[in-house]
Design brief:
five-stranded parallel β-sheet, Rossmann fold, alpha/beta, 21 helices
Length: 525
């Protein structure tokens, strides 16, 4: 037993004895299937902070490592039911590394790779001192010699593998040296039984290619079969709410929304804090500060502000994540920034539609704090008008709605160009920001060349509110907008909906300003 070779199981012991522990041990069975399989034995899991990555790494180390006896920690857990449980329990050599422990000061950047190698080799000496001689090939060379002598391989569990890219954002030579070391450590190595790495960022790319292409990645973009093991599921959160007497519906509104594959996942840190305190608030500031978010959303890429504003209004934003280089500094487009925010946990991803969105009220609050600090004062003022505008819409007060829209236009003129379709849609989404409390994600019809985007708000099941069909017109009348809704039968989108429907026509004339007409729609007509 050493610090890095076959460490003890104390970290996992503390996790399972915590008051709040969710059993994710059946994930071990999936890893058992990958052992010594050349095509699948390299695994990289990337998730935001506080999504259970380190706990999973501690679990795997406690299960596999020969240096401890962990049977009692897994007794009664899900993994005990797997056929492979007994076969691999504490039967493997494990090298467990937390890279952040070697990089807690900037002075370590130039030496941390050497320090990792010397620390692991020191542990290996106590177990295999007669099997190797240190040479210029460092740790890979030592492991090659041990394997040649003993025919015993190693399981590598590396946590925070990507902290180099976060801690040394501008040090490209250090980043490259780290990737070269990992490539030399793993690629083609017979001594590797399983290589399991975790981090916030997926593996760094150069161009379109991964720098370590032997790894199968399980990320926020493509979680695969590991989706349910990082974060709490809806069923797990519901059970905790019942246990602690917390309103599950309110917890869902505040913290649900991370769509990982087809699973709805909650941030374990937020849920644990909620259970401890009983207070609904943002716990995100304990992990990533709003200043960090501000740096990225203030980048002046075309359409980035419109995308953020639209998502604050509960809309989804289509992205192409393939161009992101998976670091903290290489940005060439709006999509690169949005993809990074997804990996950092500020956005969620709809894999089927390739769309990102703000997952929940907690993260929306962090966005609002960031835009307020970033000088987006007009946006904050516009959002503050939203409650009143929504009430005026329900009251069929078109004149009042037109006045509020005009004020929002004036307040946001410096952020949005008011002469294109997407910006007009953003204006409406800002105006109806408060609708997210009562309505599902708005349905947008993109411009077709015949008019501007329609926005449809469908009420949540527990909200006794009318559906809204909003049509925008440029240099035309609000009456024309209402006529178009009727002529093109936009209400057919709500076939089967039995509640009330309001038709909202909003026009902007460069000379006359804004106007609005609101009508009740009755199906019997």
């Amino acid at each position: 037993m050493g610090l890095y070779l076959n460490p003890d199981n104390e970290a996992f012991r503390q996790a399972v004895t915590d008051e709040i522990y969710i059993d994710k041990t059946d994930m071990i069975a999936l890893m058992n299937q990958k052992l010594n399989k050349s095509r699948v034995k390299y695994v990289c899991v990337s998730r935001p902070r506080r999504f259970g990555k380190s706990t999973a790494a501690d679990m795997l180390s406690a299960y596999y490592a020969r240096g401890c006896c962990s049977r009692e920690l897994f007794t009664g857990r899900k993994i005990e039911e797997a056929d492979s449980f007994e076969t691999h329990l504490n039967q493997h050599n494990v090298i467990r590394l937390d890279i952040q422990r070697f990089l807690f000061d900037t002075s370590h950047l130039d030496i941390f790779i050497d320090k990792i190698q010397s620390a692991v080799i020191k542990d290996l000496e106590s177990e295999y001192g007669g099997c190797f001689v240190e040479d210029q090939y460092g740790l890979p060379g030592v492991l090659d010699q041990i394997y040649a002598q003993t025919r015993k391989g190693f399981i590598f569990i590396i946590d925070e593998w990507d902290c180099v890219f976060r801690f040394a954002k501008e040090r490209k030579e250090i980043q490259k040296a780290w990737l070269d070391f990992l490539r030399g450590l793993f690629k083609g190595a017979q001594y590797v039984e399983l290589a399991y790495m975790t981090g916030i960022l997926p593996i760094k790319k150069y161009g379109e290619h991964s720098a370590i292409n032997i790894f199968k990645e399980f990320s926020m973009l493509s979680p695969g079969r590991l989706a349910q093991y990082f974060g709490f599921t809806e069923e797990e959160v519901n059970g905790l709410c019942e246990r602690y007497g917390i309103d599950y519906a309110k917890a869902k509104a505040w913290y649900d929304g991370y769509l990982v594959g087809e699973s709805h996942i909650y941030n374990p840190q937020a849920i644990t804090e909620l259970m401890d305190s009983g207070s609904f608030q943002s716990y995100w500031t304990g992990t990533e500060t709003y200043e960090a978010l501000k740096v990225y959303i203030d980048l002046n890429f075309d359409g980035l502000k419109e995308a953020v504003i639209g998502m604050l209004g509960n809309a989804h934003c289509h992205i192409d994540p393939s161009t992101c280089q998976n670091d903290m500094t290489t940005f060439k487009s709006r999509d690169d920034v949005l993809t990074l925010l997804l990996h950092l946990g500020y956005l969620s991803f709809d894999e089927k539609r390739s769309e990102v969105f703000i997952p929940n009220q907690e993260i929306a609050w962090e966005f609002l704090r960031s835009v307020k600090a970033g000088g987006w004062d007009g946006l904050i003022q516009a959002l503050q008008r939203s409650d009143r505008l929504l009430e005026n819409t329900w009251n069929l007060d078109g004149n009042a709605v037109a006045e509020e829209i005009a004020a929002i236009h004036c307040e946001t003129a410096s952020m949005l160009k008011y002469n294109n379709e997407n910006s007009l849609t953003c204006t409406i989404l800002m105006a109806y920001y408060s609708a997210k409390t009562f309505y599902m994600t708005p349905v947008l019809e993109l411009p077709s060349g015949k008019g501007f985007a329609d926005v449809v708000y469908i009420p949540r099941r527990d909200a006794d509110k009318p559906a809204l069909i909003v049509e925008l017109k440029w240099n035309q009348s609000a009456e024309g907008a209402i006529a178009q809704i009727k002529a093109r039968r936009y209400t057919d989108w709500l076939e089967g909906y039995t509640g009330d429907i309001l038709l909202v026509g909003i026009s902007y004339d460069e000379k006359k300003g804004h106007s609005c007409i609101i009508e009740e729609y009755r199906k019997d007509r």
